[in-house]
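seq/struct pair 1
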Amino acid sequence: MCSSLLEGRLFLERFIVIGVLGSFLSVIGVIFNGLLATLFLTRSSYRHSPFFFLGFVAFFDTLLDATFVLLLSVPVNAQFYDTYSVFLVWIEYLPVLHLLMQIFKLSSVFCLVAASIERYIMTRHWTFTGFEQRTRWLALTGAVTLAVFIKKYSSEELIVQELEGCSGFGRWLVGSKPISSGHDLLGLVHTLAISVPFFTLILLNGGIVLMLKKQNQLRSLITELTLGHDVMKMRKKNIRQATQTLIVIITAYLISNLLTLCLILIEYIDRDILHQDHPDLHRLALDIASLLTVIGNVIRFPAHFCSNSDIRQQFKQMLCGDKRDMKSLPSNRMRRMSEKCDNPWVTLLLRVNETTDVVAPEDPIPSRQSLLPTRL
């Protein structure tokens, strides 16, 4: 029997979901996440901060959106517009593109988990200012290595068959080899690789929100007493912006990957329900799940841009070429500014050390006013 990627009634539906909406949103996602990755990974003030992992989340999302176009949009559009030569090129690179897409997606999720862990520890322990840069790089390397290992040995193996007696697009049959058939352990690893980060993000970010609500009032009082009213207002604003951004990003990820998680769990429990009993519904559900993933990637840029005024200012400087670029400031000064807003106890020690150097010998005890910052 000859095959076709767009069969029967799914011809128009798949073209709209993948060929039109998916292609458009993927291109937008490449632009948006490319801008985020450029900002977070090229500016020292962000690269040496908890934004380090979010920068690589944006980087892998950029690659994921680009791979979406090559892996899913190209064959659908090629068949719809009857460009058989493009389809043949896609067939040749299909296995590599499929593996890369899975690796990029899992690497992005692992970086998101690492960012949530760092933020959780910072919220729980007041004196913790974030991981050391060496620790961040080691965590990133471990996350990418784990993603490659999991997807290399537990992801579904694509099968491309050339059917005799058929011509055109129907000559090629593209399917997947079930990983749970004779490989229950690999199927379990594949399922856990999706479900464990999903529920880990729920627990970590739920804990962050609860701790911020409990500690906000006490921290504000300590900040005001040690640094003054103006710094307290700045810190409240930073906490509110960081919390809003985090909630939106994680919520978008959870919603966009909920359908994918459900499909993986159902397929692991009983593969025949989807592949044999409801093949058309399964195919359309996979397309919608892929589209939701792209939508979740696109949402992250507006989440950062709308909820963080500093990021808006940095984008303005980066895109408009403002000479007063924050990149010119030393990274240690930027980190100290961040510490003053987020860690009152560390801030007090820093301020005491700074003021001790400028106190005159005849005045060994600095006044309370000298402990206050002269500028923000």
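seq/struct pair 2
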Amino acid sequence: MPSDGGNIFLTTENLAFSMPLIAVCLIYAYFKFLPLRVSLAGVAIVFVVFQIRSQLQARKDSQLTHLDETAILDIVGEEEEKDAAKAQEAAKQASKAKNRVKNRLAQERKSGKVKSKIEYDEDVDMATFVKGGKKGN
């Protein structure tokens, strides 16, 4: 005796084994109790609906595949644009810093604070002058 108190005859195994018999009985009842024209039309409609649904699913899958390819290309293009924008921003920052150093050095030369034998040339690395003549750092 089962301890859960359930029906021993109504199980999923019994349902699985009885599905072919149930299907045959349903098909027989469908064609027996409905006129032939109605039953064939119903079968045809169900078949057409199934075909349309499968075609729509296939089209949706192909669109998703195509969308994935275009999305990947868009993402790659966006990343390249971002990289180019970052490079431009870095170049702007470097040129601004270089201009600030040049301006400060030009002001110091005019005021006469810095008297150095180094010739200030544009090719000289400006990073050495960024500290502004401060000592100890």
